Amino acid sequence: MSSEQTYTFTSESVSEGHPDKVCDYIADSILDACLEQDPQSHVACEVLCKDNLVVLAGEISTRAKVDYEAVARKAIREIGYTDPGESFNADGARVKVHISQQSGEINAGVQQATDDGLEQGAGDQGIMFGYATDESPELMPLPVLLAHRLLQEMAVDRRSGQYDWLRPDSKSQVSIVYEGNTPLRVSTVLVSTQHAGSVGQREILEYVQRVLAPRALRDWHNPDAEFIVNPSGSFISGGPSADCGVTGRKIIVDSYGGAGRHGGGAFSGKDPSKVDRSGAYYCRYVARRLVAAGLARKAEVQVSYAIGRARPLSIKVDTFGTGDCAEAERFVEDFSFRPASIIQELDLLRPIYRSTTNYGHFGKAGLPWERSEVPVGV
Questions:
Q1: Distance from C-alpha of 49 to C-alpha of 75, rounded to nearest angstrom
Q2: Residues 102 and 111: beta-carbon distance below 8 Å
Q3: Residue pair 35/351 in contact by the 8 Å Cβ criterion
Q4: In the predicted structure, residue 377 carries a pLDDT above the cut 60
């Protein structure tokens, strides 16, 4: 009999129409609009959405000429909030802009590090984590990966018009039974989706069980799992028309679904001089490389910074007993965690951030920190 512990682990995801994700997407759309014209833009953009109001705030220093209101409306339209009968819609929303220049003191520290005058300093203090595990081909924790897939596939169905009663706001949870580090089966699937008033609970449940789950969960589909769909009943009023959204409130959805630690800093709306974002991306890149090299079954990398300094204050590696930690630490020594090195190695001064906003910043093909073939170091 196995002596490994059996337990259930659950992670959640939210769709692009969730109020907080609407804000994240607007913020990253503004970031990309700045980087398209000026790769050296420094952006820290925050967004709030409620009812018919969109507030854009923060600090942006750029040579780009950007119509922030137009960018926000385009982002809302892309998400799917176009119904003029709703208080929150792309054409009818009121957009207020409260954006100033980045602080000169912060800018000076970023431009020239206090510990190395030839280097770029970190844009803030903080701690960042990166995590990878071999329990999925994407080297991501399986619960959050499957939770994302459910909502990604639901968005495909909504946009296709085949299920015209689907609306943009939705959430999911997936619970998986583990034995030690090995996932065994999906035990519970929870989906809450906004819908038109013309559809009933039974039809939504049948769609999730018979159409969505088999396609999204693939080999992990378990028809014997418990399926919970819109447990509070109808979900007709949703999105910012019903709830307030704010940038940066879905940091666990954005990362590892709780399976790996998070330093606390949000990603969206920040250019890569902000190590909250670039440092977390690089830690994921290094952890992924470590697992891909076969040095551990799962690994977590932590880095810490001081504002204005290029050299990290600390770097820590944990293999959770699944590999030789000393060997893993030697492997990580070949990577440079200086902000300028990270930006150069991952080519981060590009308008790629709208593609990161929804369904997780990790585990998606095409993102530079998800590659394994890039040479170690700079």
A1: 13
A2: no
A3: yes
A4: no
Paired tokens of 219: 């080999």
| Angstrom distance (rounded) from CA 221 to CA 257 | 19
> What residues are paired with 113 via a beta bridge?
116
Phi, psi of 194 (to 5 degrees): -65, 145
Residue type, 114: T
Mean pLDDT of all residues belonging to the chain: 94
Query: Is the pLDDT confidence value at 115 over 80?
Result: no
pLDDT tens per residue across span 174-192:
999 999 999 999 999 999 9
240 Cβ partners below 8 Å, 6+ apart?
19, 22, 49, 50, 51, 81, 88
Residue 111: which of 32, 40, 30, 43 has the closest Cα? 40
Residue, of 82 and 123, whose pLDDT is higher: 82
281 contacts 299 by C-beta, under 8 angstroms:
no
Sign of CA dihedral 329, 332, 334, 340: negative
Helix, strand, coil fractions of the chain, as percent rounded to 5: 35, 25, 40
The tens digit of pLDDT for each residue in 63-76 reads 999 999 999 999 99
Distance, in Å, from the CA atom of 122 to the CA atom of 143, rounded to the nearest integer, reads: 33
Assess contact for 222 and 186: CB atoms under 8 A: yes
Phi-psi region of 153 (alpha: psi -120 to 50; beta: other; left: phi over 0): alpha
Correct CATH for 6-13+142-237 of 1.10.287.130, 3.20.20.140, 3.40.50.300, 3.30.300.10: 3.30.300.10
Q: pTM score, two decimals?
A: 0.94
Q: How far apart are the C-alpha atoms of 17 and 81, rounded to whole Å?
A: 8
> 149-178: per-residue pLDDT in tens?
999 999 999 999 999 999 999 999 999 999
| Closest to 4 measured CA to CA, from 177, 181, 260, 259 | 181
Flag whether pLDDT at 118 surpasses 60.
no
Instruction: Please report, for the chain, the start and end positions of each structural domain, with discontinuous segments joined by +.
Output: 6-13+142-237
Residue located via tokens 């203090």:
125
Q: What is the Rg, in whole angstroms, of the alpha carbon atoms belonging to the chain? A: 21
